[in-house]
Design goal:
Layout: E1 2-6, H1 13-24, E2 27-30, H2 31-40, H3 44-55, H4 61-72, E3 81-84, H5 90-102, E4 109-114, H6 117-126, E5 127-130, E6 136-138, E7 157-158, H7 165-179, H8 182-188, E8 192-196, H9 201-214
Parallel strand pairs: 1-3, 1-4, 2-3, 4-8
Antiparallel strand pairs: 5-6, 5-7
The structure holds BIS(adenosine)-5'-pentaphosphate.
Length: about 220
Amino acid sequence: MRLIFLGPPGAGKGTQAKAISKKFKVVHISTGDILREAVKNKSEIGKQAKAFMDKGDLVPDELVIKVVVERLARPDTAEGFILDGFPRTEKQATSLDSELEKAGLTVDSVIYFDTSEETSVKRLSGRRVCKNCGANYHTITMRPKKDRVCDICAGELYQREDDKEVTVKNRLKVYQQQTAGLIDYYKSRGSLKTVCGDLNVDGLLNKMVEFFKEQSFIR
Ligand code: AP5
């Protein structure tokens, strides 16, 4: 199963990608997670990406494409993958097409999380992330058992710097200007499947599993 998850910030792409990756044993590739890890480790890529990420702007195409091409070359992607947050520009989409073509592969489906701006803002403002294992929580919809403590590893929960109000506004604007055009790009190729991103976590997961069965991606 080779999938792309497309949608605005806060649509729930990462949450669903983690669940599907665990359930069906396909690799979850989140460019946001890879870049955040690079920033944390102060690697060369991280140093170049940080200023863009802090403002909520897109990291330059060349850098992100390089990261993804290297990641897709690893053997664990042989059974499939979920690309979460990539591609985000037409240049990234065409580069991905040509990389996959070289390997004789195609993407099975692009899942578009059609999500209202109101939902995105509510989800991002309440998101909390574990400093240690990266698990996601929400102050209202996905609360940890103990305040500010991760259920999985007892790590401390924090608010992502780019989830603060001003940066969220810019991320939503950048999404409309640079990424939303990919909906038509994939629609015209017949690979787009739209799901309602406003559904709750389980409702959304069930819709996707139903779709994967219909398409025989899974049995
Ligand atoms: P990235 O990390 O990819 O951010 P994003 O696309 O803005 O996506 P988010 O992680 O904010 O949201 P999500 O849809 O995954 O929602 P989540 O499941 O976490 O990118 C960060 C930055 O990196 C970018 O701004 C850019 O600078 C750079 N970057 C990354 N990729 C790039 C690329 N390809 N090109 C250039 N630059 C790139 O859920 C959000 C919250 O809602 C959580 O609290 C969760 O618990 C809750 N929640 C989730 N689903 C539901 C639900 N169904 N119901 C109720 N609550 C829910």
